[in-house]
Amino acid sequence: MYGFGGMGFLDSFLFGGGFQILFFLIFALVIGLFIATAVRGIRQWHRNNNSPRLTVDAAVVAKRTEVSHHHHSGAGNAHYTTSSTWYYVTFQVESGDRLELPVSGREYGLLVEGDRGCLTFQGTRYLGFAQR
Predict the structure, then answer these.
(1) 86 to each of 24, 47, 62, 81, 101, how far by Cα in Å?
(2) CA-based nearest residue to 101, from 93, 89, 92, 113
(3) Pairing state of beta strands 116-122 and 53-73?
(4) pTM of the predicted model, to two decimals?
(5) pLDDT tens digit string along 77-98?
(6) Three-state SS string across the chain, please?
(7) Distances in whole angstroms, Cα of residue 28 to Cα of each of 20, 23, 35, 77, 108
(8) How far apart are CA 59 and CA 32, in angstroms?
(9) % of residues, the chain, pLDDT over 90
């Protein structure tokens, strides 16, 4: 079926400017997502810096990890996989409120569910836990 002045729909799309518009829209979407993610990260960093440093009595009530795997292709059809692990610990304060904070792998290994002590944090930033 022909339309658009004798060209087929696909020919019209590819050579009539549709591809350039679609390419620009996808490019703008990717750049927009990148900028939005960067702004969100900078905003959280700024909020954390403006939050007071608090030290409260707390208990470790849960621990979890989040692992992501990344598959890569190298030179000569070589394939390899890398992974990233994020560590989180949930603390419960005396009021019963719970707070999940990202921690380093070292801190994650030192903390045990049921530990009690003083949690120091600033916004969503974990600063330390002194066990009793």
Answers:
(1) 34, 21, 14, 17, 11
(2) 89
(3) antiparallel
(4) 0.72
(5) 888 899 999 999 999 999 999 9
(6) CCECCCECHHHHHHHCCHHHHHHHHHHHHHHHHHHHHHHHHHHHHHHHHHCCEEEEEEEEEEEEEEEEEEEEECHHHCEEEEEEEEEEEEEEECCCCEEEEEECHHHHHHCCCCCEEEEEEECCEEEEEEEC
(7) 12, 9, 10, 31, 39
(8) 40
(9) 71
What is the token pair recorded at 88?
């989180």
Structure tokens at 18: 């549709």
Residue type (1 letter), 118:
C
What residue type is 99 in one-letter code?
Answer: L
Q: Which two tokens stand for residue 109?
A: 């290994």
| Token pair of 39 as six digits | 């702004």
Q: How many residues does the chain have?
A: 132
Residue found by looking up tokens 């994650």 in the block: 108
